[in-house]
Amino acid sequence: MQRRITIAACAIACLAIASPAPAQKAAAPASPTLARIKQSGKIRFGYQPDARPFSYRDQSGNAAGFTVALCQKIGDAVKAQLGLQTLTVEWVPLGAADRFDAVRTGKVDAFCAADTDTWSRREAVDFSFPVFPGGIGALLRKDAPDRLSEVLNQKPPSSPTWRASAGQLLQTQTFTFIKGTTAEPWLAGKLHDFKLATKTTPVTGYDEGITAVVKRGAGVFFADRAILLDAIAHNPSGKDLEVLDRYFTYEAFALPLPKGDDGFTTLVNHTLSRLYPTPEFRALYVQWFGEPDATALSFYRWSTRPE
Fold first, then answer.
1. By the 8 A CB rule, do 71 and 255 touch?
2. Residue 3 pLDDT more than 70?
3. Maximum CA pair distance of the chain?
4. What pTM was computed for the model?
5. Domains identified in the chain, total number
6. Position 14 in a domain
7. Gap between the Cα atoms of 242 and 258, Å rounded
8. Helix H segments across 59-182?
């Protein structure tokens, strides 16, 4: 009997030794971005001054817009996680040509505008969870040929007197786009696929593209549809412009972030995921885009992660 008790005791002891220790909560990934922010007491956000309603410079000279407000919430989360009493937020204006380099080189800690998450861009930067369901739209003058709007909207001709083909009409136009945006390769691909010799003229920003259409330097400006809609609502020449109903592409906008900084990316994504289901976020969306439709509601539900 004593021998059996001894054997049992040894077995229990062996099990205790072999059993793993209780699991401990994993430490947050180290983040060079957060370390620098903690040391300097400053976070630097890039923004695009002419990309309203996502980011723009308001009449007071301050950064404003939908994604600017999201970045302000991220700044609050960074301040709380680092336990800082104060955190200075610096807003750095950037153009379409230098925004990704600014993130890649550390000039800014994140870029707060309207950028599509693509595989090619991920070679230089990482991206946050999606922040908006965007896509390419088309802006043109209201006095543009009716047939041009019909062709671009893929509608049948309204007049039986029109005898030229859609291709012939498109080749009489000048199309413009912002260099470095997804509209550039998309438009080049479509012209190649349909074997069209349509003239294209790149611009450096939204204001330049809108001005080109207003002054008839271009017949159509292809760019993000939400920004184009906002532009005709606030541009002095907006009464002479229209944005077609059609989305030419469907793209998920996200915030460009430093490449490989998992700790900072996790904090950004956690902040967005917690924000999306709240009445505060719905009010922010309504402020800039109006009441969300079923597509927008589904987009943000699928962009939220459980705790």
1. yes
2. no
3. 109
4. 0.83
5. 2
6. no
7. 37
8. 66-82, 99-104, 146-152, 166-170
pLDDT tens, position by position, 197-251 = 999 999 999 999 999 999 999 999 999 999 999 988 988 889 999 999 999 999 9
Name 200's bridge partners.
Answer: 175
Range name among 70-74, 168-172, 182-186, 274-278 with the lowest pLDDT average: 168-172
* Separation of alpha carbons 90 and 154, rounded Å: 45
Please give the single-letter amino acid code of residue 219: G
In degrees rounded to 5, what are phi and psi of residue 41? 70, 25
Q: Specify the residue for token string 């002479």.
A: 240
d(CA 3, CA 183): 82
Query: Which residue, 202, 219, 243, sits at the end of a domain?
Result: 243
Tens digits of residue pLDDT in 129-161: 999 999 999 999 999 998 898 899 877 666 554
145 and 273 assigned to the same domain: no
Q: How far apart are CA 40 and CA 47, in angstroms?
A: 21
Supply the CATH number for residue 285's domain.
3.40.190.10
What is the distance between the alpha carbons of residues 230 and 52, in angstroms, rounded to a whole number?
7
Pair (140, 199) in one structural domain: yes
Mean pLDDT of the chain: 89
29: confidence class by pLDDT, cuts 50, 70, 90: low
Indicate whether 41 and 168 sit together in one domain.
no
Assess whether 162 and 208 both reside in one domain. yes
Q: Which residues pair with 220 in a beta bridge?
A: 175
Asked if 47 and 93 count as a contact pair (C-beta separation under 8 A), the reply is yes
Tokens of 4: 């059996």
Do 239 and 140 fall into the same domain? yes
Domain that holds residue 144: 136-243
Over the Cα atoms of the chain, what is R_g? Answer: 26
Whether 16 is covered by a domain: the verdict is no
Q: Which are the contacts of 156, defined by CB distance < 8 A and separation ≥ 6?
A: 150
> What is the Cα–Cα distance from 300 to 275, expressed in whole angstroms?
10
User: Would you call 199 helix, strand, or coil by DSSP?
Assistant: strand
Helices then strands, counting H and E runs in the chain, come out as: 12, 16
